[in-house]
Structures are given as C-alpha cells and as structure tokens.
Task: structure prediction
Amino acid sequence: MEERLPGVLFVCVHNAGRSQMAAALLERHAAGGIRVRSAGSEPADRLYPSVVEVMAEVGIDLARERPKLLRDEAVRDSDVVITMGCGDACPVFPGITYEDWDLEDPSGKRLEDVRRIRDDIDGRVRRLLERLSGQAESAERSEASGSGRTLK
Result:
C-alpha cells in the first residue's frame, strides 16, 4: 500500500506574497516529503514583484507562479492549513489542523521589509516541518509497536 504524504495548504487573501513564499520554502525544505499548495481567498493577477525578487535571492524562482483561488477541495485534501490574514474566508472541515500565522503583508513594502518577512516565514516553515516530521516518526513507531495509530 502506497503511503500518503502529509499535505500542507498555505492561504492568504491574494496568494501573491506570504502564502507563495511559504509554499516555496516548505517545498525546498521538505524535498518531496510533503504535498504543498497555496491559494488565496481573493487571488491577485500576479505575484508581488518584490516577493519574486527576494525569493530569487535565495535561489527560488517564482517568476512563473500565479495566484490560485482557494477551493474547498484543496482544504479537504490537506492535513494542515496555515492561514495568513484571510479571516473567515477559509472553510473549516473536521480532522484538519488549522494554524494562523500573523504575518505582515509584503504588498507595497520595501525590499528589506520583504526580506524580513521572507526570513520570518522561513523560520516558521522550518519549525512546521520539524513538527510534521516528528509526528510522522511517532506514527511509524506506534505502527511498528502494533498500536496502529497513524497520521491521517
């Protein structure tokens, strides 16, 4: 039986900054071990140019990324949903872990401010990955010992 990777969805209003940075950083750090997506409750036409620029500085190319509309299916297919200032726009379903990250919106900010936001997101993403990895290891140990409990 094929193991299902845990899924993380990052949601902000425009899906043009914070959620895109978080998704790209988690994809980099997880190296294929997590299904990562991002979406917005009111997607913009394009990513903020400052976000594309500061992500390129750390070797992540977001130039071809486009904001995506938040859909119920994306939420249902996730184990963890991280919201970033989208208020009540995110649908809530049982069995999904929700977190709200209080992050400044990079829209219209100076590059040094967007870099600071990127670095804050990077730290949060790394801590999230550590937690998810720890849960997966705990579930594997439980399964091996016969208790049968697993992540979703």
About this structure: The radius of gyration is 16 Å. Helices lie at 18-30, 49-57, 72-76, 111-144. The chain has four helices and four strands.
